[in-house]
Amino acid sequence: MHTLDEIYNEVTSAGSEDGDSIPHHSEVEGSGAIHISLTGENQGAIEGSCTAAGKEGTSVVVGFEHDVHIPLDTDTGQPTGVRMHQPLSIVKLMDKASPKLYKALVTGERLVVELKWYRIDPMGGEEHYFTTKLENAIIVAIKPSLLHKEDVSFTYGKIIWTWEPNGITAQDDWLTPRP
Description:
Layout: H1 4-14, H2 25-28, E1 34-40, E2 44-46, E3 59-65, E4 68-69, E5 84-85, E6 88-93, H3 98-107, E7 111-120, E8 126-145, E9 149-155, E10 158-163, E11 168-173
Antiparallel strand pairs: 1-2, 1-3, 1-7, 3-6, 4-5, 6-9, 7-8, 8-9, 8-10, 10-11
């Protein structure tokens, strides 16, 4: 019989199917990562466990999925309706924000969610190059998984996408009628 710590240590050091080991929290909290910050209308700032300089209090995101589309007629290829946003889903490392996220889920708490995307710039430094911001968001699902990760899905009233180097933005607000 093995302890959970022994099993965890064996799994995290064994590597994944493609030969890469499972990343440790400290390996993904710096450059090239996505960091999420959340503010609840009742709980206030929902602090994560990241301690990397400039990202303190955020949570580390290791997966992202989002789909925005316009329904099409399969025969003509022409639009048949208005744009549709599926829930924005992330995979994050479990951290001290996790219990507060569950609280936000079960109470329907409204949130402001900000995802900051980082990459390595041509000079080898870190660059915050993209931001996805959700306003009037709610958590609609949390699915914990092995290896200390959790999938968190959000719906929202407004989404803002910003290309940070030039300040280029686009947004969609469900309350704003489309022509």
